[in-house]
Known about the structure:
Helix content is 26%, strand content 32%. The chain has 358 residues and is of the alpha/beta class. It has two domains: 3-251, 3-Layer(aba) Sandwich (Rossmann fold), CATH 3.40.50.12780; 259-354, GMP Synthetase, Chain A, domain 3, CATH 3.30.300. Strands 7-8-9-10-11-15-14-13-12 form a nine-stranded mixed β-sheet. The chain has a four-stranded mixed β-sheet with strand order 2-1-6-5, with helices on one face. It has a three-stranded mixed β-sheet with strand order 18-19-20, with helices on both faces. The mean pLDDT is 92.
Amino acid sequence: xxxxxxTSLILNGQLLNKYDIVDYCKxxxxxxxxxxxxxxxxxxxxxxxxxxxxxxxxGTPKKIIATKKQMLYSAAATAKYFNFKENDVxxxxxxxxxxxxxxxxxxxxxxxxxxxxxKPSTHPFLNLDKNLVVDFMPxxxxxxSDVKDTLQVKKILLGGAPVSNELIEQCNNLSAAIxxxxxxxxxxxxxxxxxxxxxxxxxxxTALPNVSFTQDERDCLIxxxxxxxxxxxxxxxxxxxxxxxxxxxxRFDNVINSGGIKLFAEAIENNISNLIHQNxxxxxxxxxxxxxxxxxxIEGNKLNEELLIKLKKNLADTLSKYDxxxxxxxxxxxxxxASNKIQRLQTLEQFLKIHPLN
Length: 358
């Protein structure tokens, strides 16, 4: 695939070519369209590579280099999975300065989609023309969390964050076919998908075409694809079903060893997502007896005594005895990445500086 062959784009219903697209976006007063122009200027230049910024949700943000050919192969895998057709309507409601937004533009270039661009926000459906029939719409879980109906959208792809059990329950009442993607900047967006609503919903992620999986000695996922030059060793602990499918269990970084028992922070978070309405996460602090003590950190003001007692009871009723947090801490403000993901380690470090352990 030669990126030089993909220079025209149907943008908001207009067929534009190369720098006409850039001018259209660059001359807009809307910052999100300016970001699209910035990416397309890179896409249309003579360089065969593009620098991509990782989110920093699991470590220090860094830049990685991908070839435009690799990005096209990734886009082709998604197009094959979702059976994209020319002139299908796709909505871009994600910022174009991160991988998810960039890859949606590449998919539109490759598959000749009609790309409808709206301002990224936590409530994208409010900015969507109610008469528009949408074939495909990638979103973050937060963007779908308050949506009551998806009648005008056929397929939704969620990514960028885990999907809570509460959101999955909500998706069961939505008409769109909703998928959750597994991937990262290093894999050029998702490389595996699972359906989270409808009769064929599943907890199992299935590989996109030309993607396969193995595991390392930590039980962490290793990804091999036709478009990446070397395998990617992740920090994601999985239950490997076969070389094309797996069940995600949690981040190796977030596994808590409390008294010799391994506890998965993300699994616990999913189980209690409907009990806590503020942002929160599960993490460990050092403990003389247990080694690591499982704790719940909640963003915002401390609950009054009555609500705190109720929360502790709900946690005990919902979780197994080992999964129940030993302590609950309230933090005024968590640390976040530029893409609004919670930075657990940084938040925990800030907390321990203010509240050192005895």
